[in-house]
Amino acid sequence: MAKTAAMTHAARAKAAIVLMPEIMTEKPNAEKLSIFVCRVADEKASAQVSDSLGAEVAARFGPRNERPLSIHAYDGDLLVGGLEGCTHWRWGYIRQLWVETHWRSHGLGRRLLWEAEAEAHVRDCLGLYLDTFDSEAERFYESCGFQRFGRIDDFPPGHTRRFFYKRLVRSGNSTVGLRSPQ
Asked: How does 85-124 read in b/e, with b if 16+ C-beta sit within 10 Å?
């Protein structure tokens, strides 16, 4: 009778390990471990990795609350510039900033950044961050008040990727230093 109860408990424990890995009662067995390098994306496994890490990160740091950030500039019906990114954890990430060649040096890039900053204030963000490997863009971002905080050499090969951030300043409930681009 005791043996049957013990086996039932072991079977229940194994089921719990499969269904609820966060309460594992057995140590991992490295001999049973299989690792696969996927040359083609395994969407189900990738989603599980993303969801699992997302849940752990949210438990430690709070919800990500990610929202897309898209700002587009048109000359009539023609798209001539845009900014793409997102806001999460009260920071705005600028993934892409593009201005049509003919529109460069006319303040459009500065205006797009200003709009992103204004929207970041509306979303109660603490700041904006971005990266680039274009030396002209580096100078542009610095002229817009961004500060360098890191770099990766040879990314892409022969170039340097640099990282920038800009803290948004608030005084009480109002925005300080947010002004229209010139």
From this structure: bebbeebbbbeebebeeeeeeeebbbbbbbbbbebbbeee
Averaged pLDDT for residues 61-86: 97
* Closest alpha carbon to 94 in 75, 58, 119: 119
Number of domains, the chain:
2
Q: Are residues 42 and 84 in the same domain?
A: no
> How far is residue 40 from each of residues 52, 53, 159, measured CA to CA in Å?
21, 21, 29
Nearest to 83 by CA among 70, 65, 67: 70
- Give the start-end residues of each E strand in the chain: 67-75, 78-88, 91-99, 127-132, 147-153, 160-167, 170-171, 174-175
> 181 in a domain, yes or no?
no
Domain that holds residue 23: 2-61
pLDDT digits over 32-66, tens only?
A: 999 999 999 899 999 999 999 999 999 999 999 99
Strand partners, 130: 94, 164
Give, in degrees to the nearest 5, the angle at Cα 30 between 29 and 32.
75
Region 122-136 average pLDDT:
96
pTM of the model: 0.76
Domain finish residue from 11, 36, 61: 61
Q: Above 70 in pLDDT, residue 106?
A: yes
